């Protein structure tokens, strides 16, 4: 027995070592890419730099600010004034003999590593919680088979080695920082660090607006704790156990008492605390923004230029989404209608998903992030990088997902074809806009299938657990 | 005659009393009291075998209300324009072709004032409160577009005009500037322009304007300049001054007199008014106060002729060869000039420009005026150029991004001029750049780079002053005004600015979208260099409007080329496909996700369990029984099922119809 344990710890250590080498290799890879001349032209790719995430626009905003104009003068910069004062000085500062964008790139590399570490820590928490709940359901057999994959490590490595993440990081887009805010919020909520979660949520909302809908998973996380199989199931099981307690062994009675510390009811205190912190942080952030844009247009201009720009899809330059082409073609008369439709599409699914997946808040957050990055006005590969990373958390639960091979190949195909089509259309002038739009549509379909299939796989997984417990109960009864 | 005067006097008196506070100080300053009109034509041989013809018509009207709203000579439409929109200054030009600054000169008043960018250019200064300037501008563009049969009204949109502060001319706030580079200029614009003249093109100098010969020229710019001042100004006195100019560069037919000379250079083509315009001047416009034709010889040409004179006739003791025109070695004039004017020059070493003056009053139908110039010797000369030759071009390929570059190359003139400045110690060459960029060219101003002698320079070293107003998408164009100071010995300089190309909505593309979009010409001016030409007679200055125009101390100014930027186009033919496909994907997502969420596994299991636990819900029990029965033996109760199905469908249908009717009644 001891030998076995030793072996497992050894294997664990080995695994750890392997993990850290991969992390180091990914950092090295990024640094090598940074030193390529002209940044491999990644910073001007439409997949990487949308009007919201482009560092070049940020530099323009900083220049305008330096020449005592509002950074929002003109329609170049649409980001946060905080980001401007954080990254702005780095865009013009340069070290002798080094590439001019080195400092910014380093910031993004650090943000990426931080993201990976937070994803790993959150994933580990999730796995521990999951295993515990499985144990409470007497389904240890499944959990043992799962031990092969540590979902935190997988998620972190998927995040670090995803070509999308690398491209977004090296291509000088601000999305690693936006992702950092989102992951901070989820991490804080998982670890029950209420101020951190509130800070992450407020910052993420401030930076890119769409993470606002993550407030539901965060509150659920704080209220119910990390992902567990369906609460109803547990309750019923305990109810059953109590019903049968008179006839059954006392062993199970003990278990019920042991498990009574499991969060069964919604915890109101951290939620209220979270809301309080949210208010505090948002006041603080608004105050900081107000100070930095005071001598120009004030906060209203900032809201108009940041959130108004996101919501009204003013910039029609191509990106990997579908909305730019849609709004370039749609008749002006219907423009407002379709703006509402597309944004409502995100909002409509919030509540059905929250009802069905409320026992798995992290997965819910993943689904929300995927949906919003599919339907957001200026999507970039940085958003996809985030949800592909988070997908790693559920590597065990989603192991029976359908079409996963198909999804993977479409993903590879789109990411290869999309630059080709873009090149044909924009640079060679031989292709048509429709070619590029076709890849964008395919990509949207890919994301759609991913959302639908992952949700259904997750629900099926829960069903499977339920079936197993039921079977066990029946066995126990008979 | 006495009666109307008698009648007029009390009216005048009355009006004087009424408007006493306004008029009394106006009367004190000697203002233009009568409307007048003068017509002039300036001809100038150009070095590259072409001839410049510059028509200049000036009408003046006093600002008095003595005539009510009526005018004798002054076009009523223009005076109404001035009164309605309170225009202080305005210039509208229609141009075709590009002024060749290298060959046709860049340092004289005509090239600075009358060389315009292709298409329409309009600027106006208004005498209204600052917040009303935009409205006045919009109204003015519409009025002008009606007056001149041109699409000047496209300048109404805020994306096409800008408000320069100091880059163009100093009138902060109330100046608006706009251009339409793609406007085609033709006779339909010339005819309304001619209608403003009292004699139209029926008599006087304007009778020369034979449409085919004007429009076959290399450059054609028709211009209307309006100055209205309440108070006395140094230019035209108080009142409205309307200057209409037409500048044409034509090539005389040279086939007739091609003579191969012993030199490698060919003789310049000889020309006359008939050979250029196909017509002669048959007397003046009787309404004109003065009617004059000038023939101007460039400084360079005069210098060259001087040289020839010295070479050919060493014995000549005439100190000025031009006064005796017949004895000129270079050319011969067919008509004897009435007067010869010589430019009063500051630089002694330079050759003065010479102007021959011809009065048209003397000529009539029976004795038409047909000025001809016959070259006797081949002469090669060059016009005086601007200190820096400016070229603007685009860099980069593809439809995603690019860069605008303005390259400035020093000409030999600047070297000469700067030699004189050099002695004064600190020597800097000041250049003003004014550039308007449409919003779909998204300029990154932080990428401004300056190169001097092909070496990159720190921007702050060269850029003395800069004002930028970045473009707002679909609202306003980007405006850049800057003052650059270069060291004197500079050979060349370049400014580059990077930009991203915007993507437009399908409706915003013009019909020929693949042709590309125009970036209006940038304006390069040299505030330290002035184009004034002084001709010594003081008396003739007020008589001749061209010569008084020449005396104005305006800065040397040059326009760069209009740039053509190709933008990517979406597929114009299939908005419906895009809309339907995108909506289908959206609906697919929504439907399938909802379906997944709705699906419950073990529906049967649960129902059986419910039966086992004997739930109390009676209705539910009944329903489950019905469903179980249906599932077990579906053939037994099909009628009732279908009838309920039909009835529910019917209800739905009726509901829909009701909604439709409601909609039709209230919103249709």
TrEMBL record, chain A:
Tagged with keyword Endoplasmic reticulum: yes
Transmembrane keyword on record: yes
Record-level GO cellular component terms: GPI-anchor transamidase complex
Organism: Prunus avium (Cherry)
Keywords (A to Z) from UniProt: Endoplasmic reticulum, GPI-anchor biosynthesis, Membrane, Transmembrane, Transmembrane helix
Name used for this protein in its record: Phosphatidylinositol glycan anchor biosynthesis class U protein
Gene name in the database record: LOC110753292
Family: Belongs to the PIGU family.
Bilayer topology annotation: Multi-pass membrane protein
Annotated TM spans: 19-36, 164-187, 199-224, 272-293, 305-327, 333-355, 362-381, 401-421, 433-452
Cited InterPro entries: PIG-U
Pathway where it operates: Glycolipid biosynthesis; glycosylphosphatidylinositol-anchor biosynthesis
GO biological process: attachment of GPI anchor to protein; GPI anchor biosynthetic process
Subcellular location: Endoplasmic reticulum membrane
TrEMBL record, chain B:
Signal sequence range: 1-30
Pfam families referenced in this protein's UniProt entry, alphabetically: Gpi16
One term under GO cellular component: GPI-anchor transamidase complex
Alphabetical keyword list: Membrane, Signal, Transmembrane, Transmembrane helix
Transmembrane annotation, as ranges: 576-597, 650-667
Lineage: superkingdom: Eukaryota
An annotated GO BP: attachment of GPI anchor to protein
Ribosomal protein found in the keyword field: no
PANTHER family reported in the protein's UniProt record: GPI TRANSAMIDASE COMPONENT PIG-T, GPI TRANSAMIDASE COMPONENT PIG-T-RELATED
Protein name: GPI transamidase component PIG-T
Gene of this entry: LOC110757010
């Amino acid at each position: 027995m001891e030998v076995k344990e030793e072996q497992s710890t050894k294997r664990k250590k080995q695994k750890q070592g392997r993990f850290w080498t991969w992390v180091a290799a990914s950092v090295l890879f990024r640094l090598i890419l940074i030193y390529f001349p002209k940044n491999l032209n990644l910073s001007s790719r439409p997949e990487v730099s949308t009007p919201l995430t482009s560092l070049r626009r940020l530099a323009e905003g900083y220049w305008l600010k330096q020449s005592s104009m509002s950074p929002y003068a003109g329609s170049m910069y649409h980001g946060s004034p905080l980001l401007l004062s954080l990254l702005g000085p780095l865009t013009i500062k340069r070290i002798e003999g080094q590439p001019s964008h080195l400092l910014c790139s380093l910031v993004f590399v650090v943000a990426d590593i931080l993201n990976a570490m937070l994803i790993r820590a959150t994933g580990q928490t999730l796995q521990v919680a999951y295993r515990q709940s499985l144990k409470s359901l007497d389904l240890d057999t499944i959990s043992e088979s799962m031990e092969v994959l540590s979902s935190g490590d997988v998620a972190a490595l998927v995040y670090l080695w995803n070509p999308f993440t690398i491209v977004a990081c090296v291509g000088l887009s601000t999305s690693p920082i936006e992702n950092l805010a989102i992951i901070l919020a989820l991490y804080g909520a998982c670890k029950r660090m209420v101020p951190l979660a509130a800070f992450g949520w407020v910052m993420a909302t401030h930076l890119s607006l769409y993470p606002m809908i993550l407030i539901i998973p965060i509150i659920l996380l704080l209220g119910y704790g990390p992902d567990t199989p369906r609460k109803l199931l547990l309750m019923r099981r305990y109810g059953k156990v109590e019903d049968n307690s008179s006839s059954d062994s006392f062993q199970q009675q003990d278990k019920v008492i042991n498990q009574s510390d499991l969060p069964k009811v919604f915890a109101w205190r951290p939620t209220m605390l979270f809301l309080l912190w949210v208010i505090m942080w948002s006041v603080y952030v608004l105050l900081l923004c107000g100070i930095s844009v005071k001598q120009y247009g004030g906060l209203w201009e900032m809201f108009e230029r940041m959130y108004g720009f996101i919501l009204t899809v003013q910039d029609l330059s191509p990106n990997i989404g579908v909305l730019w082409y849609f709004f370039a073609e749609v008749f002006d008369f219907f423009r407002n209608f379709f703006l509402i439709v597309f944004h409502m599409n995100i909002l409509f699914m919030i509540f059905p998903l929250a009802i069905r997946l409320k026992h798995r808040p992290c997965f819910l957050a993943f689904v929300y992030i995927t949906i919003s990055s599919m339907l957001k006005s200026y999507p970039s590969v940085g958003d996809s990088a985030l949800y592909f990373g988070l997908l790693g958390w559920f590597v065990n639960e989603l192991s029976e997902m359908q079409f996963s091979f198909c999804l993977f190949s479409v993903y590879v195909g789109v990411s290869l074809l999309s630059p080709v089509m873009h090149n044909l259309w924009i640079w060679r002038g031989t292709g048509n806009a429709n070619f590029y739009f076709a890849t964008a549509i395919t990509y949207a379909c890919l994301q759609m299938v991913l959302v639908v299939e992952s949700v259904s796989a997750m629900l099926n997984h829960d069903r499977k657990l339920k079936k197993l417990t039921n079977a066990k109960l029946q066995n126990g009864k008979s | 005659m006495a009666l109307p005067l008698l009648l007029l006097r009390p009216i005048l008196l009355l009006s004087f009393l009424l408007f006493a506070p306004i008029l009394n100080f106006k009367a004190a300053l000697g203002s233009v009291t009568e409307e007048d009109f003068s017509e002039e034509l300036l001809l100038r041989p150009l070095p590259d075998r072409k001839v410049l013809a510059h028509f200049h018509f000036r009408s003046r009207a006093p600002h008095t209300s003595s005539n009510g709203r009526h005018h004798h000579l002054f076009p009523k439409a223009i005076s109404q324009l001035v009164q309605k929109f309170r225009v202080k200054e305005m210039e509208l030009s229609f141009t075709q072709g590009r002024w060749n600054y290298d060959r046709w000169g860049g340092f004289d008043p005509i090239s600075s004032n009358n060389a315009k960018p292709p298409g329409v250019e309009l600027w106006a200064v208004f005498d209204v409160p600052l917040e009303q300037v935009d409205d006045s501008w919009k109204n003015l563009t519409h009025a002008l577009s009606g007056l001149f049969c041109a699409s000047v009204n496209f300048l109404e949109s805020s994306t096409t005009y800008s408000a320069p502060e100091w880059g163009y001319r100093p009138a902060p706030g109330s100046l608006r500037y706009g251009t339409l580079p793609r406007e085609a200029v033709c006779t339909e614009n010339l005819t309304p322009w001619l209608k403003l003249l009292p004699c139209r093109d029926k008599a006087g100098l304007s009778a020369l304007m034979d449409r085919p010969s004007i429009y076959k020229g290399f450059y054609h710019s028709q211009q209307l300049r309006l100055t209205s001042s309440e108070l006395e100004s140094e230019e035209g006195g108080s009142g409205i001054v309307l200057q209409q100019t037409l500048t044409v560069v034509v090539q005389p037919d040279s086939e007739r007199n091609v003579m191969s000379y012993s030199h490698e250079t060919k003789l310049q083509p000889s020309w006359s008014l008939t050979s250029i315009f196909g017509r002669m001047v048959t007397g003046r416009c009787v309404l004109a106060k003065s009617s004059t034709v000038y023939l101007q010889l460039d400084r360079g040409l005069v210098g060259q002729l001087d040289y020839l004179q010295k070479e050919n006739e060493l014995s000549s003791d005439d100190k000025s060869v031009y006064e005796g025109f017949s004895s000129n070695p270079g050319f011969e004039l067919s008509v004897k000039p009435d007067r010869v004017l010589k430019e009063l020059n500051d630089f002694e070493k330079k050759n003065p420009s010479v102007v021959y003056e011809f009065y048209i009053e003397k000529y009539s139908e029976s004795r038409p005026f047909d000025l001809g110039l016959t070259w006797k010797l081949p002469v090669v000369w060059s016009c005086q150029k601007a200190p820096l030759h400016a070229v603007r071009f685009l860099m980069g390929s593809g439809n995603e991004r690019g860069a605008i570059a303005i390259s400035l190359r020093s000409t030999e003139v600047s070297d000469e001029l700067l030699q004189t400045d050099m002695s004064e110690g600190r020597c800097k060459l000041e250049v003003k750049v004014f550039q308007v960029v449409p919003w779909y060219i998204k300029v990154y101003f932080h990428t401004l780079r300056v190169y001097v002698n092909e070496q990159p320079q720190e921007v702050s070293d060269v850029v003395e002053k800069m004002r930028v107003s970045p473009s707002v998408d679909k609202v306003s164009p980007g405006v850049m005004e800057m003052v650059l100071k270069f060291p004197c010995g500079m050979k060349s300089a370049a400014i580059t600015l990077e930009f991203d190309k915007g993507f437009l909505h399908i409706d915003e593309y013009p019909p020929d979208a693949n042709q590309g979009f125009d970036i209006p010409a940038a304006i390069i001016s040299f505030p330290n260099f002035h184009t004034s030409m002084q001709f010594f007679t003081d008396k003739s200055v007020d008589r001749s409007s061209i010569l008084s125009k020449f005396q104005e101390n305006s800065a040397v100014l040059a326009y760069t080329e209009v740039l053509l930027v190709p933008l990517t186009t979406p597929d114009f033919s299939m908005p419906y496909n895009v809309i339907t496909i995108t909506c289908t994907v959206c609906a697919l997502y929504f439907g399938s996700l909802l379906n997944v969420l709705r699906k419950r596994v073990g529906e049967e299991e649960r129902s059986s369990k419910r039966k086992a636990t004997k739930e109390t819900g009676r209705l539910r029990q009944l329903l489950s029984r019905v469903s179980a029965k249906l599932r077990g033996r579906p053939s037994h109760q099909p009628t009732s099922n279908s009838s309920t199905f039909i009835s529910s469908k019917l209800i739905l249908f009726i509901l829909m119809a009701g909604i439709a009717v409601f909609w039709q009644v209230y919103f249709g």
